[in-house]
Specification:
By secondary structure, this protein is α+β, with helices and mostly antiparallel strands. It has one domain (21-68). It is 19% helix and 44% strand. The chain is built from one helix and three strands, in the order H-E-E-E. The protein has a three-stranded antiparallel β-sheet with strand order 1-2-3, with no helix packed on it. The longest helix is centred in the N-terminal third of the chain and has 13 residues, at 2-14. The radius of gyration is 22 Å and the shape is elongated.
C-alpha cells in the first residue's frame, strides 16, 4: 500500500508543465483549400488568431506547383 501511494505521489510530482504554450497564443487552422487554374495552384488558409474573439485571418498563396 505504501509503494502504491509513493508511486502516485511521484507521478504527480514528476509530470509538470514546464514548457507549455497557451492555446490563446497560437493560431488554429480553421479551413484549408487548394485550387488549380491552368498551371497555377492557389492555397487558401483560414486561421483563427484570437480564440476569445473568433478573429479569422485568411491567407492566400499561389505558385506553379503545390510545394512552391
Amino acid at each position: 500500500m505504501k509503494k502504491i501511494f509513493m508511486i502516485i505521489i511521484f507521478i504527480f510530482l514528476l509530470s509538470g508543465c514546464k514548457s507549455y504554450t497557451e492555446l490563446n497564443n497560437l493560431g488554429v487552422i480553421n479551413t484549408i483549400g487548394i485550387e488549380k487554374n491552368n498551371n497555377q495552384y492557389k492555397l487558401y488558409a483560414s486561421i483563427i488568431s484570437d480564440l476569445e474573439n473568433n478573429k479569422n485571418e485568411i491567407y492566400e498563396v499561389s505558385g506553379l506547383n503545390i510545394i512552391e
